[in-house]
């Protein structure tokens, strides 16, 4: 039997997703059968929604309202957020998928390439959303998701340690050193790098990842190389040598150090705030390192409808008429702390200065590319940054090699 | 490293009805045939099996999964025949095992084989039918600048229609064949509430006809260019226009705005003459293309051989180190003079009780360059790059695998040592053999007879030890001289995971992953088969 374990693992790992692999040993063949709760009845009146842990309660509230008004049964299936994308891709074609799933906008390219997601007509409601939120879910003029939150990173400042917002990166470092704390400024990196957190600093050198069309969507032409990219790489190396950037600082290390008052600044998102209770915080724009505006990525969360849903009428009704309300969006905001995508709800949430601060920074931000080519970029991007910061690689050469490697990967696929 | 118990054996034990151990002579009838207790037990067990089987058949029928349904019917017929027939005695023992072999192994191997010859992956996720459907729905867009209307779904005879109220307060109604026309209806709050000649549908009726309602297109005017009214939620309607049309007879897609014609290609895409293609494709058979791709990409040439060498080194060294340490400890703890052996033995098995992926994660934290336990506590703050230096990372992987794997080897070596009959050792002593001579000529060969097959399967297991690599180093540190995202501790199976995009760094390609898995399977199977043949020579000692 020992020999067969890897065999089963290989076969399953290849044929199914890795998640299926974990339970593969004990599962009876019958277990892969659709169980009653996964199937949707066709008699009109039931809806299956995939949600993750943090959003379950909030969606449940909207679902209850929907159930009461329409007599529909809504069934929420809780899944790991990381499992939702592969499971949705694998299960929709088999007819086993949900009617609606929660998801992030940067999945869009993959979901449409595989034809598993249906367009949603927001109608008049579309103008009620933040522009960037709808744009993020738009492809070729067609909207594919109902946005509910817009999130981005910003500079979080501990006002007890630094009284004023720094204008530039050098100001921030100087203020951090003047504060006498262990770290002048905290940016998570890790041995594999973190290009998402590093991106605003990269854009401040004028080296965005892809060129943008006029409507804000991306085309698969790399823009992160050239003079601007090389300047950013050189800067990375200098900051690494000066000890300001450090690959040993991971998310956990950075958050803990900031919570302990070991630095006046951290670059991060609203998801960190839970760890910073008791600190006096202010949210500032990310200081520019290269002279140009530091634009972080915007991530938009929303709901997708399955292309194979047998209840698409109910699904559209639920999303457009029950999830696009201020009430539902506020409930999601309160559950997850992510600033709402609906303008009215976002205005209400902005009563909190922290949320308002993130929203302010987000208004300058750019959507994270959702084109499928992005996957190839992530694979090289962070590791190269980490190698440059740790001094393991010569900056300009490493950056140029990275650009040509990404181009090679794009050409090969 | 874990040693799962063979599920089929236990399940077979649980499944096997009460049967006498031997057929017996013709005169003796089986206990399961004489309507005694054995027969009753058999009847109950078979009833359970049948009930479960029928349930699966019905469920599969309901889901229209006819493949599962028919294979289940076949399995049930075979099972009933075998256990109620007089002639199928040997099969009674074999059938449960066979069924599980079929479900767990043969099916997955065959499925992998089938996928290896397709282009299943990103862009080719489903059937052609699904792709066509998606292309059509995604290319039907709202006419820019057109308003949305609160809609009333109506019916005339068996024809569904939409009624709206336009900006002038007029009620307009139409069906699929009848373009919108103004009628003398009643509007309440901007919604058409009564339409002469039509019956207004309630919510329940709309839901019953949901598919027809969302499929309904009511032309706005006689000119098709103006688009047609449609609704997605039966509350609001908007004017939409298709930009793509599927011609079923010619099997081509037509772009209605540019006039371009897209024909289906061998790669599973709709492609126009100028080479542009529609983004969503479907799954097709691509023959041996995946195998050609697997070995045809020049970017992988150098890293592949490095990884192949490391995979062999990792698998062989893992088996050697764990076996030697396990054996050493087994010998030490086998000495009857040692007190408290049971406690030591229990303690030694502890690493074995920790799930492999969890242990690997723990170790990756403990080996962190700056904040890890090893550097911070044991080495007094030295920043040793256990997982970031190429050589040290390889040693760390081997070390962690040693920690995970030696208890298993310790267990089997202890068992094997205790199974060696003491009279053989005594005989060697009487013949005048010294300790070392006895060890090399008697103990060791006898030990290998029982452990060699386990060592071979341990090799095969480690050859594909994806969990350890993925959880501990993710293949890192990266090669600095390669143009692909692979690293110094990547083994073949983790390379497959990355090459085929399953880790998200490239477009997913299950076809390629399956093809590469088959290649790995062939390598492991060949080595194992050769090794098993060699071990047969050992058995002659017995």
Report on this model:
The complex is a heterodimer of chains A (about 425) and B (about 550). Chain A is an alpha+beta fold and about 425 residues long. Chain A has two domains: about 10-20 and about 40-150 and about 300-365, Periplasmic binding protein-like II (D-Maltodextrin-Binding Protein, domain 2), CATH 3.40.190.10; about 155-295 and about 370-410, 3-Layer(aba) Sandwich (D-Maltodextrin-Binding Protein, domain 2). Chain A is built from 16 helices and 14 strands. Chain A has helices at about 5-15, 20, 55-70, 80-90, 110-115, 130-135, 170-180, 195-205, 225-240, 250-260, 310-325, 325-335, 345-350, 355-360, 375-390, 395-410; strands at about 45-50, 75-80, 100-105, 115-120, 140, 140-145, 145-150, 155-160, 210, 220, 265-270, 280-285, 295-305, 365. In chain A, strands 1, 2, 3, 4, 7, 13 and 14 form a seven-stranded mixed β-sheet that branches. In chain A, helix 9 crosses helix 16, helix 12 (about 325-335) crosses helix 13 and helix 15 runs antiparallel to helix 16 (about 395-410). The two termini of chain A are about 40 Å apart. The model of chain A is unreliable at about 1-45 (pLDDT under 50). The two termini of chain B are about 30 Å apart. In chain B, helix 8 crosses helix 18 (about 510-540) and helix 11 packs parallel to helix 16. By secondary structure, chain B is an alpha+beta fold. In chain B, about 35% of the residues are buried. The longest helix of chain B is centred in the middle third of the chain and has 33 residues, at about 300-335. Chain B is about 55% helix and about 10% strand. Chain B folds into three domains: about 5-115, no CATH class; about 140-240, D-maltodextrin-binding protein, MBP (Periplasmic binding protein-like II), CATH 2.40.430.10; about 295-540, Orthogonal Bundle (MetI-like fold), CATH 1.10.3720. Chain B is built from 18 helices and 16 strands. Chains A and B meet through helix 1, helix 5, helix 11, helix 15 and helix 16 of A and helix 1, helix 2, helix 4, helix 5 and strand 1 of B. Chain A: This is ABC transporter substrate-binding protein. Chain A: It comes from Cellulomonas carbonis T26. Chain A: InterPro entries: Maltose/Cyclodextrin-bd, SBP.
